Structure formats: C-alpha cells, structure tokens
User: What shape does this take?
Amino acid sequence: MTLKERINEDLKVAMKAKDEKALRGIRAIKAAIIIAETSEGRNSKDLTTEEEIAMLQKLIKQRKESLDIYTKNGKEDLAKVEQEEIEIIEKYLPQPLTQEELETLIKETIQQENATTIKDMGKVMKSLTPKIMGRADNKWVSELIKKLLS
Assistant: This one.
C-alpha cells in the first residue's frame, strides 16, 4: 500500500471517528502529497518512497520550528496543536534506528569506504544516507560519524 492509499484510508477512519487531531495531521500530509505530485517538472504522478520520506520529514521540521516559536512566546495552545500534528505525521515514517543499530551501520560504512579521517566524512555520508533514509536525523548521524572518525 502506498503512502497516498494509506493516507486516504486513514482519513476515512479519522472522519468516521471524528478524531480532530488525526484529521489535521492527515490532511496536512494529503495536501503535501497533492502539491508534490502536481509540482512543475515532475515526470511521474506517483512519489517515490524517498520523496515521501523527505516530504514527511519536511512537514515535521516545519512543525518543530513552529512549536519552538510558540513555546518561546508562551502560546501553549498553538504549541499543543503543532505537537499533536508531529505525532500524527511521525506514524507514517519508517521505524527509527536505535543508537546501537545506527553505530553499527556507520562502522560498517566506514569500513566499506575505507574512511580513516574526518576528510572522508562526505564519502561516508553519501554511502550511508540511502540506508538510513527517514530512520535517523542527519545531524545526529554526522555527529556520530565525526566521533567515530576522530
């Protein structure tokens, strides 16, 4: 089942259950899918798995930024809405990697790329990114790579 099909099914369920939290998050995802599919320069109608994950991550990032702003300005009601949407959107991302799983993948990739210094970090990241797509934060990954290469 594609993300689009899953979203449509979950939207029906949320509407029947009158779940406002889920409806907000699911509608945001559906809108992002429609925008991505109809964007200029697209060759195919359907999104790839990588494009879907990137889109979901972008939606979460936007909401986290808003959440920070609302929290800093004491707008707890708006912050709560953003947090609820983040939780809904995260359900559609792949299962996150644990610290141990990520370190193992990084060590394997460092060996495969024969990386020995920080200068090889780009090579490691390039090789590692497809393996961890949507399952770990790139900032966290780069910190671990730096730690292991130094």
